Amino acid sequence: MKNTLRQIAHSPKFMIGFCMILLMVLSVFIYPLIVPGNPLEMIGLGTFFRPGTYVSVYDSVSTDKRYVIKLSDAAEKRLASKLAPEDREVMKTWLLAFGLPEESIDLENTEELLQLWRNTYDPELRFDNMTTAVRKHVQRTDAKLDSLLTDTDIIIASETDGTLTQSGAVGANDYVNVSEIANVRVLPLGTDNFGRDVLKEMISALGTSLLIGLIAGTIATVFGLALGLLAGYVGGIVDDIIMFVTNLFTVIPSFVLLILISFSISQTQRGTVTVAVVIGLTSWVWTTRSVRAQVVSLRNRDHVNLSKLSGHSLPRILVADILPYIASYVIMAFILQISSGILAEAQLSMLGLGPRTTTTPTLGLMMYWAMLYTAHINGAWWAYFPIVVLIACVSFSLNLMNTGLDQVFNPQLRG
Amino acid sequence: MAKKMLEVKDLTTKYITRFRENIYAVDHVSFEVEEGKTLGIAGESGCGKSTLALSLMGYYFPPLYYSGGEITIDGRNISGLKPDDVRKSILGTEIAYIPQAAMNALNPTAKIIRFIEDVIHAHDPKKTKKDIYDLAKERFEILNLPSDVLQKHSVELSGGMKQRTVIAISTILSPKVLIADEPSSALDVTSQKLVIKMMYDLMNMGYIKSMIFITHELPLLYNVTDDIMVMYAGQIVESGSARQMVFDPVHPYSKGLMDSIIVPEEGTRDAKLTAIPGTPPNLKDPPKGCRFADRCKYVMPLCQTSFVTMRRFGELDDDGNAESQRRYRCIVPVHELKETFKREGGLRNTGGAAI
Amino acid sequence: MKGYRKYFGKKILWFFITLFFAVVLNFVLPRLMPGDPVANITARITAGMSNVTATQAIYNEYIKKFGTDQPMPVQFVRYIGNLLRGDFGQSFSQYPRTVGDILASSMAWTVGLQLPAIVTGWIIGNILGAIAAYIRKGFDKVLLPISLMISGLPAFGLAIILLMVFGLGLRVLPLQGGYAQSLIPAFSLTFFKSVIYHYWLPFLSIVIIFIGGQAIGMRSMSIYELNADYVKYSRFMGIKDSKIVGYVFRNAMLPQISGLALSLGTMVGGALVAEIIFNYPGLGTTILGGITGSDYPLISGATLIITIMVLTTSFIIDIVYGFIDPRVKAAQYD
Fold this sequence. Notes:
The complex is a heterotrimer of chains A (415), B (355) and C (334).
Chain A: H1 2-10, H2 12-34, E1 52-55, H3 57-62, E2 67-68, H4 74-82, H5 85-98, H6 110-120, H7 132-149, E3 154-160, E4 163-170, E5 174-175, E6 184-187, H8 198-234, H9 236-251, H10 254-264, H11 272-281, H12 285-298, H13 302-309, H14 314-350, H15 363-372, H16 385-409
Antiparallel strand pairs in A: 1-6, 2-5, 3-4
Chain B: E1 4-16, E2 22-34, E3 38-42, H1 49-56, E4 64-73, E5 76-77, H2 83-89, E6 95-98, H3 112-123, H4 129-142, H5 159-170, E7 177-181, H6 189-204, E8 210-214, H7 218-224, E9 227-232, E10 235-241, H8 242-247, H9 252-259, H10 301-305, E11 311-312, E12 327-328, H11 334-344
Parallel strand pairs in B: 3-8, 3-9, 6-7, 7-8
Antiparallel strand pairs in B: 1-2, 1-4, 4-5, 9-10, 10-12, 11-12
Chain C: H1 2-31, H2 37-46, H3 52-66, H4 72-84, H5 99-135, H6 137-152, H7 155-169, H8 189-226, H9 229-236, H10 241-278, H11 283-292, H12 296-324, H13 326-331
């Protein structure tokens, strides 16, 4: 036993997988301490805010501490960030119509483009191949450029009795120190379609999903183990009945059962635990099959017969004389069940049959909403991609642990 | 003097583990087998006897590697041959092997005749299927196997039939040396006798020239072999005729082995080897001196430090013939060992374990 | 021949038993809902529905379909009768289409997508697994973690990654649908081209997952076989290694075939969810639509069709397996 544990601890595959899982479990407990609050709170008004640091404009403007920093490329950067790609396209259209060769126009280089524009653009010019609508569009773009280029102060005014009085001004070289701003929120993964902090929600969801996996895995393993032990050891009619049911549920796709059962449970009752239990109850067949096969081969071993002759009770024989020999297998099956339970929840939720809850997020539900709001077509990768990566990481680390155990228990598989 | 069928000189082979350690499971083993003779190799499990069987084939694959020594079969040295030449011209035709688990030795999804065709074509690609079938049928008849077995898969055969089928296949190319590793361990006494009788029949008919039995069942060796060799920790510790080895062992280890069984009556199956206290040394790092020293009840300080070589000794046996074949590996002279054994008294309480 | 007959007899009997139980489950599970199922379902469906004709049709449909005034056995006989006539009922969410009509079209898409994917994935996965087992060392060290990573991924996860890379990133393949939306399904070259163009991403995401799972299974199976006693014996009888490798892979591959029959249900389930990512017009998307629209007859029909498809395919695989693996015949003599 001690030797086995040492071997397991020396298996790099198992340890990597184990540490990954440990890290995830730790983050589930630690992250809420760092960023407190309800993970399902809809903090953003609007859908799919990009990942980044959100600084309160109100606080930035009204702060007393303002620093003047002169950076030579500040103006250019500002311009580049404000000159949208569409505007650049419009400028290009005009320049091409003016007769400039295409290769002389570099849309990426803002400074050169502006220089070119200033030197060539004449609002009075008309081209035959340009409609009036386009010409007006170009004029509007030019006006916008002009306003961008002036770096006059922005006046801050306050309103009293319908009259505005200047209360301050923000210059082009004014800076604030983010650490001195009262309200700054970092959204490392932006927000989802409901305006919820994706990272915070995801870590909370990871906890729920792991819990679902754990519940489903425990139920499936306990159920499968009990049935397998009974069928294998008792044999006879008990074996026949159990194996009949097991074979039946092996071929009838558990996915279909999951859908039917989940749909039949009324919406209000379909909480996290219910879904986990349903998943557990539909995935015990593999454990039963393998446990039974192993028990059958153990049934007539000498030590079992000895125990039988000593008049030990059935539960005692099963627990003391048979279980230790299949323990390694059962542990591996358990790990596998956890991983497939998490995947099953995700798949069920993708179909809209996940936990119907407004209080706890799950990884599957997050995927469901992201897909329903077509996050992938809207380019909001942060709403679904991290979740896929996380699901993959969970099942990869569990699989890795299993492969490590497999190589310890079955040495011939070693590479 | 009879022709030497197999001559092994200082054969050494090693396992290389995945931690790159060398384990010399067969360490400078030398012996010979003459035409028409049967040699038995005995020892506890893990003493290297099965590895010796594999090593004698001259065909090595990981994790077993050749390390040194020579194997000569019927005057032809096979140690220097290329693996593919060994495969084509030695395996099956010069030396053949019956594995320990004959039950699983046949490919479960191929018909027996297909496998025989593959075996024969590996040596003689031109042989027609008809000739192969006729040959197989003839050999199967000698072994009392109905010819329709040829058209079956191994999974459809009973245990005894599988065993005989494997013997038939192993001897189909009339090898000069046949090595049988635990030929009977999975069979009951009656089938065990039958199988051994069949192998002798094959030898008497000239299909095989000599045999090596490897087993932990000493009674079997006493009854069926001419000579016995005892192995311990990769080395031979004593060899001699079957009779001498059973009734007059000189090495403390063979003495222990022989004493731990009741004098073999025919077919006493319970008379298996009983353990001598202690475990064999780890071959990863074998002791410098005598490998049996840690378990020997006659151990002396010199045993732990000095390298012990194989020694010949010749006295006259009961019939007055010189015992030129006897060898043993111990620093104590033969007569002193024998005196010690005699002082210790009766047969049962000498070197053996009191189990 | 006796062994084979027994094997096939058993398989055929088993096929009908499982089919029967699958149908029974399909019938019973929704009726186990707490409370009055008809009231439950109609309440769920008609909520937020403005089409009066449809609402009325739903109500009538349910009275007819469930016949709750009748005892269970009568209901069951009626249910079976309807099934045998191919009558799956009326869809609510896609009224006035019938469930049979919807399923017929989506089934074709799903079979067209999954069957080639399973076959391709099985073949490639087994070849890779066998190579990994035979070569070990470097190849194995690279392939095993990759396979583990991939087979741990749900099919829909890979679907999203592929979609990001090829659809959104490289913009070489379309994001969704089974064919271009501007086209009407027809037997024309343009339509066919569009189908192939939309086929790649869903196909790849399913195939790659299958390959990963199969490769892992085949690798362990081959390693197990490579250590078998017959390998050693064949070597010592002078048979060439290349020939022995042939024995080994045949023997390792055969259980992979029957394994396919057993794991088919799980695979199909995963692949159906992957369809949703691409809005592929198959059964997966249909089920999603049914669930979103609380379209009970559609869900019931779709799950039944999936079950029948899986059972039939497993049955065919089992029968084929019986012919090619002699071990099956021997097992029947016990």
